[in-house]
Records
---
Amino acid sequence: MESKNSQVNRRTFLKLGLAGAAATAIGSTGITELAASSSLLSPPSAQPVYRILGRTGLKVTALSFGAMLTPEHEVIRAGLDMGINFVDTARVYLGGRSEEIVGKALKGIRDKVFVATKTRPASNTKEAIIKDVEMSLANLQIDHIDVIQLHNLDSPQRAFIPEVREAYTRLREQGKVRFFGITTHTNQAAVINGLADDPEKFFDTIQVAYNFKSDPAVKEAIARASAAGLGIIAMKIQMGGYKTREEAKALTPEQAAANLKWVLQDKNVSNAIPGMRTLEQVKQMVSVMGTKLTKADERILLSYARAIDPYYCRHCGQCQGTCPQGVAISTINRALMYHEGYHVPELARETYRELPTQALASNCLSCSTCVARCVRGLDIGRKMAQARATFA
Amino acid sequence: MTQTPHPPWLLVVGLLFFLFLPSQMMAEERPMEKLTPFPGFSAEWVLEDPVKTFTKEDLFNYINGEAELYYPYGFERLASAFYARKGSNGQIGLVADVYKMGSLLDAFGIYAQYRKPEVEGVSQGVEGFINPSQLIFYQDRYFIHLAASGTSELEASVFQACALAVSKALPGGREKPKELNLLNIPTLLPRTERYYPEGVLGYAFFRRGLIGLADQGKKKIRVFVLMETSAESAQDVLNQYTRYVKQAGLTPERTSGPGGLQLFSPDPLHKGLMLSQKGPFIVGAADLETPAQGTLLVGQLLDRLP
């Protein structure tokens, strides 16, 4: 399932060898060649690691490129030159610009890279799907898409709409797409299991939000789907599922590396597609490929989890109604999170002010034994005291 | 105890303050839910469900991974309204999304991520564009995305009517972010400016700046302005870049140009790069094949700096 191949990384090695010799003088010609020979495009001792993308049979790099957030095609190209051979984008990202950016990055190396994109979530008719794919092909400036994906399923039903399947089949007959996939962000376990149970085995891949804080049900569903022959593409590996930009920002390179290793140590995952905006991020992620999750990484993951757990309320709402005074615990925790975690006091106060007077933290009586309960063990009494002090 | 009446001058000052209070401050108090037209934007188009709002915490639930794009631009809240066309049984709709971003520059920045140079402009907001499936514009610190739902196309007049109604509810006028003036050199191609709050040109050490395309005949050259907080931090950025290219085995050169010292180097990602610092700003040009291609552009950019 997994292999290393030093030959494919030939471009990298060639560049390494040339860089020193080329760095002599800057003349009026040869700038492009000189720049392209830079050793900085080569991550240290990185070799691509490949896995098979389920029943597609495609041999994809375990680290693949999530291109949605990358504004510079040169950054994507640098990743591809480092050996990444799978890039994922979508028709809707940046209103089509993301596909154009990917298209520029593919110039001259299309045959070395697998391209995945998505039809728009609203496109459920044959006509709309076919139009989407044609638009994607034009944006990407390629003649076929390797994996076309139904975007953002929150239940398996959409994957079973006959018209959708007809459109996808038609596109494959026309040679415009090769394999079919879906993506899911919510209700993931149900979606994945639904696809795994499909007797027609119509879809080949599932793109799923997956990280070390994922629900065990998702992990189990991934294992089932993988066993059923579906390729598993992991997204949001850097805690995108945590929904807080600030946490992602606070990620150290070690934490980011540990997150990737954690996802890839699950052999049911075919590849991971972290979003990478800068050359530094690409190099860092590429250098992780093929390395194992260590005890030190596990400690990093646990300390990260511990660091966010005390203040991170998941707003499941199960605490609501457990306070006899009617304090709006969940909303107040959210306001606190804006204040402490996001450092946006205006938003925090705005959120707090929107509460009815009787639901404010000032109504918390600081009962000696707080009867309100958080299923994740947050100290609600302490949080309400914090809110009183913060928003007084 | 009798209450002392307010002196008349205080009332006058108060009235003047209220009258000349920036419209932005007045409208800031308006809840997000009230920024989308109610009960509709025409007799044919009515609000179908209550307006939904999203915060940093749950924006993912609405736009999935694309939420990551919005956070560096200071995203605060989103109000999303669904308008159904009468008689369509809720099948044909228009989704009006109003995003509150960190600032006018941030709103421009996220808007420009979606804009292509060849788009058809609209008159709503500071700037906007329309195509058969969407109308997008920005105004003040708000970014507005109107999209067809249940159909791939809607009449332009429908989008325009909704955009007009949303625009009226928003604060702000038609002023562009003043920072865009920094890029406004004679050869700048229209609608090519973008603002990046991080990772300009794909380099983490280029922390924040503007990029545009300059027309050089057959060739388009990227020009940019990096905005630092002090001359010292700008110098630090230059030093980081110099170290970076040297690590790549490349040799940067210092040359003198119209505005003073310029740094020119082959660049691992962008062919040749020319940079020049003035105070907290670094201006530059990328994609250069020869230093001569960048000299004039960098000089013009330096002239734009305060």
---
Amino acid sequence: MYKIVSRRELCGGIWEYVLRAPLVARAAKPGQFIIIRLHERGERIPLGIVDWDPGQGAVTVVFRERGKTTSQLVREYCPGDVILDVVGPLGNPVEIGRPGRVMCVGEDAWYANLYPLARALWEGGNEVICLVSTPNGSFWMDKFSAVAEVNLIGNPAAALRERLERERPALVWASGSPAMMRACSEICGERNIPIRVFLHPIMLDGTGICGSCRVEVGGEGKFVCLDGPTFDGAKVNWEALEVRLSAYREEERLALVRYFGKETG
Amino acid sequence: MRVPDISVEVAGLALANPLMPAAGPLTSSPKAAERIAATGVGAIVAKTISVAAAEVPHPNIARLPYGLLNCELWSEDPPERWFSEYLPAFKALGRPLIVSLGYKPDEVRELIPKAEPFADAFELSTHYVGTDPRPLYEIAKAAKETTEKPVFIKLSPHVPNIEEFARAAEEGGADGLVAINSLGPGLAIDIRRRKPLLGGEHGYGWLSGPAIKPIALRAVYDVSRTVEIPVIGVGGIASAEDVVEFFMAGASAVQILSAAILEGVKVFSEILKELPNLLSELGVESLRDLVGVVHG
């Protein structure tokens, strides 16, 4: 059982939850994620670990209220409540290194994934520029600006294209929808700039047993949970990823209808 | 022709160039300020310090098609941290440092002595948006009784007669003015959520960026024709052309914030690179020669 320490709505529909999970907080590294399950009959969903405090034994996740599980979390789980399972840290930590100038592009709740990365890059002596966007406002501008230059952009791909006209980073990171990461990967590909992306497919166990998170990278089958969650954006088969992500769209819709007792937007 | 001179002098402060970040998130911490200093700006203006840390609503800044809407307040860090840790680090950046303080006479009397060892000048903000200019006189007077360093007063664009407010600040002893603060309150609505875009009680925000540039230019024009003290122009500046426009309207230096958040802090170094070329093209030897040329 894992207690919810605090929560707040960062901007319209995007939530920050701080969970008490001391072992995860002690071991977490940039790029890693947890899988949570709210209750005995709950779905398992992966969430990036976007901040952590080993002293307080706390880990932070940021997500948009979208499907049944995130809706239930926001509507029924408040500080002091407990969620059944928190498993992690899962996935491979990002190898930070000394790439030099790094541009991080992010959209919506996914841009929180860039924060621990930007912090580690900055601590490693790299220059970090973060281009972030949501359809409604912004969040963590203060946290980001402590470790990176942060720009509040409109369309991520358009902004990346425009920035790459003016300066050339050694590496680009993207965290957003598959369509956004695909567009950014194509833009970097045209300019021969390496790009890394955060993938977030459907996941169940997070240990490579179930195979739900299989993606094709460089023509090879990879498990996002074991081999990822970050990959070379130029090598990802985006079409295959989008097909997999939409495999249960009808079931996801029905789960929401059942939860709310009616059709929702 | 020689390379045009872009150095300026404002209220006794000699600056290598006219650019500075406006008080706000660009200079909310030493790390953030270090990135701005690295672009080559002529001076640093720190984020506004008040007697207690601000509690800021969320979200507090949103991009709109024509600028930024924000309900940021003053610094979220406590003043003690600014005086013991941040301001010494800001000072070490080696640029003229303008410390921004708010918001009432008693508060600036309390804050100025603590910031004095680090500041080359002070910029004072007031929350005041009424019709009586007297509070500007009072805060300028309180500051000048406390420090001998230059004191700038930041003007809001909302007042019925901005010249009277400028004059009140000048009579109170202000050494310069900063025009303008962001415009508002305004409102933007998230139509899918049927709520204001920004947090806070009513979701109000203050507008900055390209949308307010003509209003800022007009304010600089009006104010600089009225008072003897210099004016620092701020509001929607994003290019070397914009800088020249503000100088022609009467500014002696300029501040930039929104463009750096919307387009990147590189905007400072890009303007610094472009400005001498533009002045050459205009046949101008020194930026100072342009101050108020449209006053006629």
